[in-house]
Amino acid sequence: MKRTVEPKVLYFGTPVVLISSCNPDGTTNLAPMSSAWWLGYTTMLGMGTSAQTVKNLVERPEIVLNLVDPDMVAALDRIALLTGSEEMSESKRARGYRYVPDKFAAGGLTREPSELSGLDSVQESPINLEGRIEAINEIGGPDSHLCALEMKVERVRVREDLLMSNDRYIDPLRWDPLIMKFTEYFAGGAPAYPSSLARGWQMPPMVSLTSPGPGTP
Ligand SMILES: Cc1cc2nc3c(=O)[nH]c(=O)nc-3n(C[C@H](O)[C@H](O)[C@H](O)COP(=O)(O)O)c2cc1C
């Protein structure tokens, strides 16, 4: 039996990525996001247009995608409700967002030079994808304030222990991406950490499948 429903979010589970982009003053902004997919050497990124990241990428197309390992989840969550934009929408303010320009410091993450641009990459990320934005399109209609950014990947840097013997492949058994599913963090298919984003979105608490249900004696 199925029911027709209108879920608040359709985040079925995608890898978490930290985007490095260039602020107007030349410093690097860092933003967590998870609406990313790959086809060939193109990445499509779905972002809200109020993000400082989008404002930066409209003006300066250089970008680094820092993929997130489950070991980074606490650092990631420390910057989950931060924005590098001084202007904030009412809905973001209501979700508990704060303006903090230096998210490397706020998260306790380490800067690493990129190879193709002056952007700082994230040293803790086992995989860094460098490139540039080639197109930006509005999506979801005029009131959605959403856009799809098309990135060309120009450089791929991978931690050596994740590579298979001939360097052309990343080992699927050793690479375990942090996944965001309906605003909650998952690793290896299991919940990984309490999510500030879920709190901001007022998501109902997850009930463990193995714990007794409500009203169970
Ligand atoms: C795990 C996680 C995933 C997120 N995924 C997205 C996303 O896919 N698209 C988006 O626009 N915002 C996403 N966000 C919210 C952004 O991080 C938020 O808009 C933030 O303000 C962006 O930072 P910036 O304003 O400094 O660019 C996500 C946040 C977290 C913590």
Which features characterize this protein?
about 220 residues; mainly beta; Pnp Oxidase, Chain A; 7-stranded antiparallel sheet; 4-stranded antiparallel sheet; about 15% helix; binds flavin mononucleotide; Flavin_Rdtase-like_dom; flavoprotein; Flavin reductase (DIM6/NTAB) family NADH-FMN oxidoreductase RutF; Split_barrel_FMN-bd; Flavoredoxin
Strand order of the largest sheet: 3-2-6-11-12-5-4
Query: What sort of overall outline do the alpha carbons produce when their principal axes are compared?
Result: globular
How large is the share of residues in beta strands? Answer: 35-45%
Order of helices and strands: EEEEEHEHEHEHEEEEEEEH
General description of the model:
This protein has 217 residues and is mainly beta. It has one domain (14-200): Roll (Pnp Oxidase, Chain A). The chain has helices at 52-59, 73-78, 90-94, 103-107, 196-200; strands at residues 14-15, 17-22, 28-33, 36-39, 42-48, 62-67, 82-83, 98-99, 111-113, 120-122, 127-139, 146-158, 179-181, 184-187, 190-193. The strands form 4 sheets. The chain has a 7-stranded antiparallel β-sheet with strand order 3-2-6-11-12-5-4, with helices on one face. A 4-stranded antiparallel β-sheet has the order 1-13-14-15, with no helix packed on it. Flavin mononucleotide is lined by residues 16, 29, 31-35, 46-48, 51-53, 80, 83-85, 180, 197.
Concise synopsis of the structure shown:
It comes from Kribbella pratensis. The protein has 217 residues and is mainly beta. It is 13% helix and 36% strand.
